[in-house]
């Protein structure tokens, strides 16, 4: 009896070990990154790479990718990041590996040197990744029917938009749908703004600065070499004020604008009860357009106008980086940054894949909105007029912690407070940078 029991245990342990060994195989390549719309299409692309290479690839989505990598650098092989600052920090901390070998003398033909520098070490000798996708924040969205009703105007500058607005917008016929709040379902009484409230206003400001003054002024402003109280930034803020602080320009007035979700602008633009013709929103608006509405037929966008810097774009994006130099990781990385990556995703009728490569085949797009956005970004990159979201690049988070809050304050006040607001921003940034 004892012998039988012993034999049974041996057979059980052997069977369990064998089953466990063959049933559990470690992932060949683990990629960590954020949760994002159409993540399932990205995974479909990964499955295609897996079939081609023979490596099992797993994607793990996280709330804070940079924090995870800082504390668990050995638990991932590749990473998607949405912040150039986080990527540089992780690279400088030796969490990310250099990918210099993936760049050659032809790289500048399909990558922007500006963007490459954003994800390189401070002396630009080490590159810590590649750009995977880019999105435009330089879109003037419009309601097609109402746009045609006001004469289908074209604009060569933001000044022309201001002039058109002042001539055609009234309290009973507001031309603009604008919202700036990031709070969720807050009542009007005892109101608390979301902590990100104001980010959309920073997008407006960034577009005006780049469109009116070009890349040199924009870059120096982001580095804080040009202050908010300097003429270029003050006048750009004043341009925002000329739209939002004039009665009759913004749908339902300023009170509604500052207390309504950013996402409501897209829905309001196409609402039959509104009079809105225009809205200044980025790519994100496509996620809030009613599904019953169609691109070109019901809504469309034109590029942010600039007389001297046409094709300028302020945008955001995500990157892919390497944490492991083993063969599977290197091979999968090479596939992710190739010109062919994203073709399955681009073929989807609702695709939001906007390749960061200028040599991506635009004919692969079956979604006309995404194709138009890709062409806008490609032209901008080719002319070195693409710039990253300034508030995401400013030192020590001043763009988020200080700029967003102060811009919200400016929107709630009037142009009379312009000097006070710019001085407040400069003072708070100076204090933040000094560590006081």
Characterization of the model:
The model is unreliable at 1-6, 8-25 and 185-191 (pLDDT under 50). Helices cover 44% and strands 11% of the residues. Helix 2 (39-53) links the parallel strand 1 (29-34) and strand 2. With 436 residues, the protein is an alpha/beta fold. Helix 8 (199-222) crosses helix 16 (398-412) and helix 16 (398-412) runs antiparallel to helix 17 (418-434). The chain folds into two domains: 29-136 and 315-388, Periplasmic binding protein-like II (D-Maltodextrin-Binding Protein, domain 2), CATH 3.40.190.10; 139-311 and 394-434, D-Maltodextrin-Binding Protein, domain 2, CATH 3.40.190. The longest helix is centred in the middle third of the chain and has 24 residues, at 199-222. Strands 1, 2, 3, 4, 8 and 9 form a six-stranded mixed beta sheet that branches. A three-stranded antiparallel beta sheet has the order 6-5-7.
Instruction: Give the helix tally.
Output: 17
Q: Name the helicity range.
A: 40-55%
Q: Looking at CATH, which topology of the largest domain would you report? A: D-Maltodextrin-Binding Protein, domain 2
Give the tally of β-strands. Answer: 9
Radius of gyration: 25 Å
The CATH homologous superfamily of the largest domain is termed Periplasmic binding protein-like II
How many structural domains does the protein architecture include?
Answer: 2
- Mean pLDDT reading: 90
Structural class: alpha/beta
Q: What is the level-2 CATH architecture name of the largest domain?
A: 3-Layer(aba) Sandwich
Summarize the structure.
It is built from 17 helices and nine strands. The protein has two domains: 29-136 and 315-388, Periplasmic binding protein-like II (D-Maltodextrin-Binding Protein, domain 2, 3-Layer(aba) Sandwich); 139-311 and 394-434, Periplasmic binding protein-like II (D-Maltodextrin-Binding Protein, domain 2), CATH 3.40.190. The strands form two sheets. Strands 1, 2, 3, 4, 8 and 9 form a six-stranded mixed sheet that branches. Strands 6-5-7 form a three-stranded antiparallel sheet.
